[in-house]
Amino acid sequence: MEIRRKSVAGTLESSDVLVEIEPGSGVTVELESVVMMQFGAAIEKTVREVLQEFAVENALLRVVDRGALDCTIRARVETAIKRAAEGEDK
After folding, report:
1. Taking all residues of the chain, what is their mean pLDDT, rounded to a whole number?
2. What pTM value is reported for the model?
3. Distance CA 36, CA 17 (A)
4. pLDDT tens digits along 1-30
5. Quick one: DSSP state of residue 66?
6. 36/38 Cα distance (integer angstroms)
């Protein structure tokens, strides 16, 4: 899926995650989390899995986690991808 524009999903509230995505060269994930030491690798793995499921090959993601559950992270990344690719035939 092609990322056509910048989009955002989520909030900076406790137990949520803010995901910003924009066109990029290759896939770059910038992660900030209140639980980085414990779950940073798992959060990045989840983000990359969703990107792979949607065949996103060129994107820059900024992920600011405030203790979100895995299902919330997945939902926010998926929403950001769909918003950024609006207008593309699915």
Report:
1. 95
2. 0.93
3. 13
4. 999 999 999 999 999 999 999 999 999 999
5. S
6. 6
Tell me the β-bridge partners of 40: none
In angstroms, rounded to a whole number, what is the distance separating the alpha carbons of residues 85 and 19?
Answer: 15
| pLDDT higher than 80, residue 83 | yes
Structural Rg of the chain based on CA atoms: 12
d(CA 9, CA 17): 8
Q: Enter the tokens of residue 83.
A: 């918003």
Contacts of 48 (CB under 8 A, 6+ apart): 27, 29
Closest by Cα among 31, 32, 35, 36 to 51: 31
DSSP 27: E
